[in-house]
TrEMBL record:
Residues 18-39 have a biased composition (Acidic residues). This is Amino acid transporter AVT1E-like isoform X1. PANTHER family: AMINO ACID TRANSPORTER (PTHR22950), TRANSMEMBRANE AMINO ACID TRANSPORTER FAMILY PROTEIN (PTHR22950:SF692). One of its GO terms (cellular component) is membrane. It comes from Nicotiana tabacum. GO terms for molecular function: amino acid transmembrane transporter activity.
Length: 533
């Protein structure tokens, strides 16, 4: 039976993983533990499982991205709080002699042989490198933690209830009242595909993350394709964070202007630059556990913003007014993208499942979190649209009367949220890039800072180029979320369960794939044309 290394050994010990060039073809792992208290050494030699059926084998197991599990655990808020700066070494800084040849294929799953005796299995390497002969400290990223049922529910709610709620009134305005059926439909579909991901995780030993599922189903190319799609989704979310922060800061300081080197900056551009400079130091943190702990309070921030909306509508001067159309076919593609964005959390569902003490209760975790998310989105969509009608903005916080204290509380809550969430979201992307650094000379503090800084400023450039919160969200929802949350879970499940899938399951998965593809094409085209016009 598999056993987690971080559960077996104390947190104060240093685990190191070392590979041997001479034995690389055998794909063995050597795990060393140095115990400062006793001075004893503990060594395990473990060859990998032989590939069979959908099990990940030694010849189709790419190491990239090996950092995905721990970095996404921080994203879901399942890690304990600790904090340190990127000082001294980066994620992939080698501690011994580097090798000149990078490798993209290395075993992900290992087993141990011991005279027919069952011994621990390394089901997810704490940290392996794309470089084939190097030792790396395993303490750069915090170890995965076992979560209780309540913690898992909170993590799932925190992942589902995000910034998409700000645009649900606008989505209702664009699509009409009947479009609320799509909000329910996408909720049901994505709940089902979340269950499919669980079944994919259970299909073979050692599968713990979404890229692992892609690898088990479609080999190395499947793993890389899914990883790229997940990283693109995270990166685009950072662009949304920056646009959201800049829009609301600009609303708080509408008359802010600046002339720099002959360039005139309006309030949005000025606030976007200021927001970037405020966020930048947070991405230089090496261990983001503390920020993940704080960002897990996103549910609290969401409650604050929703209460402010209801307060303004019920207590202050805005009130609720009936109106709107039944269905607007022309704007429906925009609504599809916005609604689908609300349920785009499948990238972290495998991590939540793998971190549960009671994984059998994962379906109920999804049921509770999706139910809360749906009714939250529904309530905000209806209330926001009844309050602002045809003047509803892509972010309802921009419609709140600026003179009200309640409006200022909502605006500042929305502004501060990206400060904690941005670094958590971009770090998996940075770690994935760092895995490709070929030599020890490049695995330095300066290079790690440079990679993160380039990523941050690239999101600034894009947010200044396309400063359209609603259109960008619709584009993300139509393209990436449809792919990650609808199409890929069904495709992977069909591939992994082809010998035991029922006709009903096959029909359901095929129908979801068709819906996802059609919605992706129509929604992506609509979002791109709206930004171009």
């Amino acid at each position: 039976m598999g056993m987690r290394l971080d559960e077996e050994f104390g947190a104060d010990r240093v685990l190191q993983i070392e590979t041997d060039d001479e034995e690389n073809e055998a794909d063995d792992y050597k795990i060393e533990e140095d115990d400062d208290d006793s001075g004893s050494d503990f060594t395990l030699h473990s060859p990998v499982h032989e590939p069979s059926h959908s099990q990940i084998g030694p010849h189709d197991s790419p190491t990239w991205p090996q950092s995905y599990r721990q970095s996404m655990d921080m994203f879901t808020g399942v890690t304990p709080p600790s904090l340190s700066f990127l000082r001294g070494s980066s994620f992939l800084r080698s501690q011994t002699t580097p090798t000149p040849q990078p490798s993209i294929c290395k075993p992900l799953i290992s087993s141990l042989r011991s005279d027919k005796e069952e011994v621990p299995t390394l089901t997810h390497p704490t940290r392996l490198s794309v470089v084939s002969s190097a030792r790396y400290s395993a303490l750069e990223l915090p170890p995965s933690q076992q979560c209780s049922y309540t913690q898992s529910v909170l993590n799932a709610i925190n992942a589902l209830c995000g910034i998409g709620i700000l645009s649900t009134p606008y989505a209702l305005k664009e699509g009409g009242w009947c479009s609320l059926f799509l909000l329910l439909l996408f909720g049901i579909i994505t709940f089902y595909t979340g269950i499919l991901l669980k079944k994919c995780l259970d299909s073979s030993p050692g599968i713990e993350t979404y890229p692992d599922i892609g690898q088990a189903a479609f080999g190395m190319l499947g793993r890389i394709f899914i990883a790229v799609a997940l990283y693109a989704e995270l990166y685009s979310s950072c662009i949304e964070y920056l646009i959201m922060m800049s829009d609301n800061l600009g609303a708080i300081f509408p008359s802010a202007r600046m002339v720099f080197a002959g360039i005139h900056l309006d309030s949005y551009q000025m606030c976007a630059i200021i927001s970037t400079l405020v966020i930048l130091p947070t991405v230089w943190l090496r261990n983001l556990s503390l920020l993940s702990y704080i960002s897990a309070g996103g549910v609290i921030a969401l409650i604050v913003v929703v209460l402010c909306l209801l307060w303004v509508g019920a207590i202050n001067e805005v009130g609720f007014h009936s109106g709107g159309t039944a269905l607007n076919i022309a704007k429906l593609p925009v609504t599809i993208g916005l609604y689908s964005f609300c349920y785009g959390s499948h990238s972290v569902f495998p991590n939540i499942y793998s971190s549960m003490k009671e994984p059998s209760r994962f379906p109920s975790v999804l049921l509770i979190s999706f139910s809360i998310a749906f009714f939250s989105y529904l309530g905000v969509a209806v209330c926001g649209f009844l309050m602002f009608g045809e003047n509803t903005s892509p972010q309802f916080t921009l419609n709140l009367p600026a003179k009200l204290i309640t409006s200022k509380v909502a605006a500042w809550t929305v502004v501060l949220t990206p400060v904690t969430k941005y670094a958590i979201t971009i770090t998996p992307v940075a770690f994935g890039i760092e895995e490709f650094l070929p030599s020890r000379q490049l695995r330095t503090y300066g290079v790690s800072i440079l990679i993160r800084t380039i990523l941050v400023f690239s999101t600034l450039v894009i947010s200044l180029t396309v400063p359209y919160f609603g259109s960008v969200m619709s584009l993300i929802g139509s393209s990436l979320v449809m792919l990650v949350s609808l199409i890929l879970p069904c495709a992977c499940y069909i591939k992994l369960s082809k010998d035991r899938i029922t006709r009903f399951q096959l029909a359901a998965c095929t129908s979801i794939i068709v819906v996802g593809v059609v919605s992706a094409v129509i929604g992506t085209y609509s979002a791109v044309t709206s930004m171009a016009n």
